[in-house]
């Protein structure tokens, strides 16, 4: 570097080093606080740790501590860049021949100085301190929590100023700044969960459960209910013995009671209410209407999260789902709601066939009531949409008729071969799905 008799290059270089050191401290502070286990710090704070209590306040005050630390990193980085360019642009420009022109030489000098600074800043002021702070997060944060708080306070004016400017611009654009607060979206949560699964921190079952919980708010009761054709119910003119026989046959503890047809449900008979009649010789048949309880009716569009709250508050285990015309669409139980999150729950009395059973990597047997979305996700294909919600509805529409019992027609769609295995009561009860090998450019199926 050429000599600088006035010392004008020395001060910017010193300032550059200072700002880089401050940037490294801001990066380390933000990284250490973010990497700490909140639950662990809280436990230590509850047990009386003074430093843990102070650190817990810092962790909980993300808006007033961590955000300023990140802003301080940005501010010091920009100031260091300006000082670096000021110090080095002329010395670097002097290395180019005079034939280039003074303006171009200065521009090249500024560009090269900026590039060199950015590389050093990324390595020494961002990547290295963050990695080191994460590794020694607990010792660094506990030992320097007061210093971290002072660093945060020093950067607060810069954060407040930039926030005020941004909010002012947003208001000019007629955008409410408060509507854009740092709310974590479901997509961001699932992205973090996916990264956790890849690193082995989260199991696949835990990932599925988290996804189901997020979907719980958007899932309607009609999507997980037992369809009306699968409801085991009795007429209101039935007696106790008929209810007991139905309960034993289907293994259910609550039986809907209807008047004339299933669209007119008048109550629910609880099998436990029949226990007093066990071993008792009745003078005459006892009507089920004397024992039934009021039914709880809900629309099929009601969200599962809301329904779960209502059912637990009402202390009911079963609800009758009603369609837009007032008819019975199906029924839903508290167990159905729980199963939509944790998966199928079977006790020693359940004898249910899995709705979806994987035979091999390319073969599946499924219920005809499995939803189109489920099958699309299972087979990684895009099935066509239409006036149907289930895979059985898709096959019926493609066939153009309802197969008879014993028939096993087959269709091909979206790279899948779908064969009817069982038909019950004019419904496609069980299907076999086979993923076909992809077709090459010559129109021939490729060998897998």
From TrEMBL:
<dbReference type="InterPro" id="IPR000644">
    <property type="entry name" value="CBS_dom"/>
</dbReference>
<comment type="similarity">
    <text>Belongs to the UPF0053 family.</text>
</comment>
<dbReference type="InterPro" id="IPR046342">
    <property type="entry name" value="CBS_dom_sf"/>
</dbReference>
<feature type="transmembrane region" description="Helical">
    <location>
        <begin position="104"/>
        <end position="128"/>
    </location>
</feature>
<keyword id="KW-0677">Repeat</keyword>
<dbReference type="Pfam" id="PF01595">
    <property type="entry name" value="CNNM"/>
</dbReference>
<keyword id="KW-1133">Transmembrane helix</keyword>
<dbReference type="InterPro" id="IPR005170">
    <property type="entry name" value="Transptr-assoc_dom"/>
</dbReference>
<dbReference type="GO" id="GO:0005886">
    <property type="term" value="C:plasma membrane"/>
</dbReference>
<feature type="transmembrane region" description="Helical">
    <location>
        <begin position="12"/>
        <end position="33"/>
    </location>
</feature>
<keyword id="KW-1003">Cell membrane</keyword>
<protein>
    <submittedName>
        <fullName>HlyC/CorC family transporter</fullName>
    </submittedName>
</protein>
<feature type="domain" description="CBS">
    <location>
        <begin position="225"/>
        <end position="286"/>
    </location>
</feature>
<feature type="domain" description="CBS">
    <location>
        <begin position="291"/>
        <end position="348"/>
    </location>
</feature>
<dbReference type="InterPro" id="IPR016169">
    <property type="entry name" value="FAD-bd_PCMH_sub2"/>
</dbReference>
<keyword id="KW-0472">Membrane</keyword>
<dbReference type="GO" id="GO:0050660">
    <property type="term" value="F:flavin adenine dinucleotide binding"/>
</dbReference>
<dbReference type="InterPro" id="IPR036318">
    <property type="entry name" value="FAD-bd_PCMH-like_sf"/>
</dbReference>
<dbReference type="InterPro" id="IPR044751">
    <property type="entry name" value="Ion_transp-like_CBS"/>
</dbReference>
<feature type="transmembrane region" description="Helical">
    <location>
        <begin position="72"/>
        <end position="92"/>
    </location>
</feature>
<feature type="domain" description="CNNM transmembrane">
    <location>
        <begin position="5"/>
        <end position="206"/>
    </location>
</feature>
<dbReference type="Pfam" id="PF03471">
    <property type="entry name" value="CorC_HlyC"/>
</dbReference>
<keyword id="KW-0129">CBS domain</keyword>
<keyword id="KW-0812">Transmembrane</keyword>
<dbReference type="Pfam" id="PF00571">
    <property type="entry name" value="CBS"/>
</dbReference>
<dbReference type="InterPro" id="IPR002550">
    <property type="entry name" value="CNNM"/>
</dbReference>
């Amino acid at each position: 570097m050429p000599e600088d008799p006035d010392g004008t290059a020395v001060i910017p270089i010193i300032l550059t080093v200072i700002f880089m050191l401050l940037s490294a401290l801001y990066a380390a502070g933000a990284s250490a606080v973010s990497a700490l286990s909140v639950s662990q710090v809280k436990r230590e704070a509850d047990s009386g740790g003074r430093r843990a209590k102070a650190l817990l306040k810092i962790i909980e005050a993300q808006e007033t501590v961590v955000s300023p630390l990140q802003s301080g990193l940005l501010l010091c980085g920009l100031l260091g860049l300006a000082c670096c360019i000021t110090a080095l642009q002329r010395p670097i420009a002097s290395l180019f021949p005079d034939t280039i022109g003074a303006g171009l030489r200065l521009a090249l000098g500024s560009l090269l100085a900026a590039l060199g600074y950015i590389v050093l800043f990324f390595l020494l002021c961002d990547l290295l301190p963050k990695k080191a702070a994460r590794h020694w997060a607990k010792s660094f944060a506990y030992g320097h929590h007061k210093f971290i708080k002072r660093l945060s306070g020093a950067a607060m004016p810069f954060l407040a100023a930039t926030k005020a400017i941004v909010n002012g611009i947003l208001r000019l654009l007629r955008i409410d700044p408060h509507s854009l607060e740092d709310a974590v979206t479901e997509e961001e949560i699932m992205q973090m969960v996916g990264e956790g699964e890849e690193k082995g921190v989260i199991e696949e079952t835990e990932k599925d459960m988290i996804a189901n919980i997020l979907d719980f708010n958007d899932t309607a009761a009609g999507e997980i209910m037992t369809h009306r054709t699968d409801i085991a119910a009795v007429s209101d003119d039935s007696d106790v013995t008929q209810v007991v026989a139905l309960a034993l046959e289907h293994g259910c503890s609550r039986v809907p009671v209807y008047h004339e047809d299933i669209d007119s449900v008048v109550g629910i008979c609880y099998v436990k209410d029949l226990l007093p009649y066990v071993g008792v010789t009745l003078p005459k048949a006892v009507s089920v209407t004397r024992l039934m309880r009021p039914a709880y009716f809900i629309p099929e569009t009601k969200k599962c999260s809301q329904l779960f709250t209502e059912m637990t508050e009402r202390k009911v285990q079963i609800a009758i789902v009603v369609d837009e015309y007032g008819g019975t669409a199906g029924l839903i139980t508290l167990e159905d709601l729980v199963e939509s999150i944790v998966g199928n729950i079977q006790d020693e009395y359940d004898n249910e066939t899995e709705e979806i059973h994987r035979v091999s990597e390319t073969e599946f047997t499924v219920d005809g009531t499995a939803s189109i979305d489920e099958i699309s996700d299972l087979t990684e294909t895009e099935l066509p949409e239409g006036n149907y919600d289930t895979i059985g509805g898709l096959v019926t529409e493609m066939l153009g008729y309802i197969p008879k019992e014993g028939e096993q027609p087959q269709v091909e769609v979206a790279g899948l071969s779908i064969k009817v295995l069982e038909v019950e009561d004019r419904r496609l009860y069980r299907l076999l799905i086979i993923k076909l090998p992809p077709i090459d450019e010559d129109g021939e199926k490729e060998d897998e």
